[in-house]
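Much of what follows relies on a compact textual record of a protein's fold. A record is reproduced here so that you can trace the correspondence yourselves:

. . .
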Amino acid sequence: MSIDGRHELDKFAQTLLGAYLIAVAGKTTADSESLARAAADFLDSPRCAELIDQFLKTLVRATARQLEQEHRTDPFCRLLCHPLTELLEKGALSRTLLGNYFSFLHLVLGDAQGEATEQCQAVIDDLAAAQKFTWDAFYEDARAKQILWDVLLRVAQTFKRFEPRRDWFIALMQNRTHAISLGAHSFMPLPRSEEEDMAPFGITEFTLLFGALFRPLMELSPSDQAAFTGQFGASSLVLIGPLVEKLV
C-alpha cells in the first residue's frame, strides 16, 4: 500500500468514526471523552489497519475490473484487439499485457486516438440504426478497416529503425503497472497477480503479436487492396511488406 493511500484511508476512517460519534452522542450514557479515547485506540489498532488494507484491495480490484470492462466496450480497443483474438484465446499472449499494448497505441497516436474512437463509435451507431450491429459486422465494415489500417500504418512507420524500436517495445511490454492514475497527483496501487508475474514477453511474443497485426495486410482481398491503395497511395505490399519481412 502506498503512503498516500494509507493517509487517505486513515482520514476516511477518522471521518467515519467522527460521524458515528456525533450520531450516537445523544443516545449513549458513555461520556464523550471515553468515546473519543475508544475511537483513537481503534484507529491505532492492528484491526483498523487490517480493515483498511482489505478495503483498499477491494477498491483496487473493483477499479481494475472497471478499467478492463471499459477496454472491452471501447470500440477502438475492440478493433485493435481483434487481430490478436487467436493469440489471446490460445494463451500465446497473456491478457495481462493488453494494458501495456493500449499504452503503446496511445504513445503512437496521441490525441488522434480520441478521434479514432469517435469514428469507431459512429460506425457502431450507423450499424445499430440499421439494426445490423454485431461486433463481426463492425470489424468487416469498410470504415472500421480504414481506421485499423491507418493505425497500423502509423505503427509501422515508427519501426523503420526496426531492432532498436523492437527492443524498446519489448521493454515497454515487460513493464508491470503498479498503480492506476486517479488524477493529476493521485495514484492507487495495483495488487500483483501470479498470472501477471509469469506472463512472458520477449522476441517470440513480439513476433507473434506483430505477425497477427500485420501479416493479414499481406493477404488483402482485391477489393480491400484497392481500398488500401486508394487510402494511402500505395499497396500494403509496398508499405507494410518491409516490416513483415523482418518478423522472423
